[in-house]
């Protein structure tokens, strides 16, 4: 067995610890039927659920909170199997699977906010969550405002209003990867009777939201959970019955579901999440460290590196890392040079999203909508998602592209 450096251990430790849970959750040899069965559960497609008698149908009343299949638009057996596993990974009491990661952001806003309330979002929140808040929540008379991603919790308090009901944060933040002190933020929120929402997509498996006082945790299962870039799906996890009933009622009221095929594939993807991320997180760190040494790079925004805002909190609160991060170039490198470099790369496809088995690159200049100036983005920047390729091939690819565009 190769020995890991302390840095490699810090990004991959959590994945090792989680691997057995990921493989065994919801599967036990005692539940295998006498006549035998396949390893993976069957795929169930359906709308109507039929019953042998009126009495049997009436007996299902009230079971909508019990992950019971009542109607296709309220979830399928595949969705409910996945919900139980996601709740275990997130460490909450119940999860609701929904049609996309974006819906996982919007459904809790619709659930926990009413006209006249105020919602405070972190500036580095996933962009489409901002778009929804601006375009939809404001229409229903919910006030929306933002706080900078690089201020202390004491400073965040100044952004609260008497009618603030939700703080929606993301840690690390989209594109700029600022890590937040979630424990301190949840204390502040609860002192003011505010619910704290966390978009925990980057931290899946390696950040335990409910141990830090989060009320609602959001996952884009599209990303590492599914891991193969072939579907979109999301999940919302809460940690008590009252919140669960409100969330579930809203999902049913909207007819919000995750399709059976997507749920089946995501549950299959989750079985290998530990193995994929153990490798991808170490590869990403190796590549991030190499990039940090290159003369054209101003800084690398990866939570496991000291140049990332909140690195010390990452060390304290996270048991690992995922494999997406941002590089910021020196001001002497032009945006056009970065575009040319990106287009020269062999192993990086150009694309948004992340979390698959393949490497991706995304130019982020001006693509991210911010309400406050960001001190970290001092030059042209791009986000890298590192896949399962050999990290040395990726480093060679980056080296060749740098050489072709500005080193020759
Ligand atoms: C991708 C992403 C989402 C949305 O997921 P989709 O399934 O693509 O809608 C939400 N939050 C974060 C942090 C994401 O990266």
UniProtKB/TrEMBL annotation:
Residues where N6-(pyridoxal phosphate)lysine is found: 223
Keywords of the record: Lyase, Pyridoxal phosphate
Substrates-to-products reaction catalysed: L,L-cystathionine + H2O = L-homocysteine + pyruvate + NH4(+)
Example of a GO MF term: pyridoxal phosphate binding
Keyword check for Lyase: yes
Cofactor: pyridoxal 5'-phosphate
Family named by the database record: Belongs to the trans-sulfuration enzymes family.
Protein name (database record): Cystathionine beta-lyase
């Amino acid at each position: 067995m190769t020995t890991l450096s302390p840095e490699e251990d810090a990004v991959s430790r959590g994945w090792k610890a989680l691997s057995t849970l990921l493989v065994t959750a919801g599967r036990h040899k005692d539940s295998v039927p006498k006549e035998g069965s396949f390893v993976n559960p069957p795929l169930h497609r359906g709308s109507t659920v039929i019953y042998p008698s009126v009495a049997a149908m009436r007996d299902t009343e009230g079971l909508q909170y019990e992950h019971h299949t009542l109607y296709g638009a309220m979830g399928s057996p595949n969705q409910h199997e996945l919900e139980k596993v996601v709740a275990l990974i997130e460490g909450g009491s119940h999860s609701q699977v929904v049609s996309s990661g974006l819906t996982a952001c919007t459904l809790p806003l619709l659930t926990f906010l009413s006209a006249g309330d105020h919602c405070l979002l972190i500036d580095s929140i996933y962009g489409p969550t901002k778009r929804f808040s601006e375009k939809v929540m404001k229409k229903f008379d919910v006030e929306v405002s933002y706080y900078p991603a690089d201020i202390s919790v004491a400073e965040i308090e100044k952004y609260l209003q008497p009618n603030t009901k939700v703080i929606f944060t993301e840690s690390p933040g989209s594109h700029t990867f600022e890590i937040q002190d979630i424990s301190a933020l949840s204390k502040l929120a609860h002192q003011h009777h505010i619910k704290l929402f966390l978009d925990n997509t980057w931290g899946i498996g390696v950040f335990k939201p409910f141990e830090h006082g989060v009320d609602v945790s959001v996952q884009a299962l599209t990303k590492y959970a599914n891991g193969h870039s072939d579907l979109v799906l999301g999940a919302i996890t809460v940690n008590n019955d009252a919140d669960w009933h409100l969330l579930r009622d809203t999902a049913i009221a909207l007819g919000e579901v995750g399709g059976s095929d997507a749920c089946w594939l995501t549950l299959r993807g989750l079985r290998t999440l530990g193995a994929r991320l153990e490798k991808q997180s170490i590869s990403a760190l190796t590549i991030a460290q190499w990039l940090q040494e290159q003369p054209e790079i101003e800084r690398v925004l990866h939570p496991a590196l000291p140049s990332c805002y909140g690195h010390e909190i990452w060390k304290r609160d996270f048991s690992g890392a995922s494999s997406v991060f941002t590089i910021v170039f020196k001001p002497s490198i032009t945006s056009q040079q970065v575009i040319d470099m990106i287009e020269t790369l062999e192993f990086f496809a150009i694309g948004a999203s992340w979390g698959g088995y393949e490497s991706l690159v995304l130019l982020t200049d001006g693509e991210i909508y911010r309400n406050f100036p960001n001190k970290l983005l001092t030059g042209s920047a791009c986000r890298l998602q590192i896949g399962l390729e050999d990290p040395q091939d990726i480093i060679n690819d980056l080296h060749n592209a740098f050489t072709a565009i500005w080193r020759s």
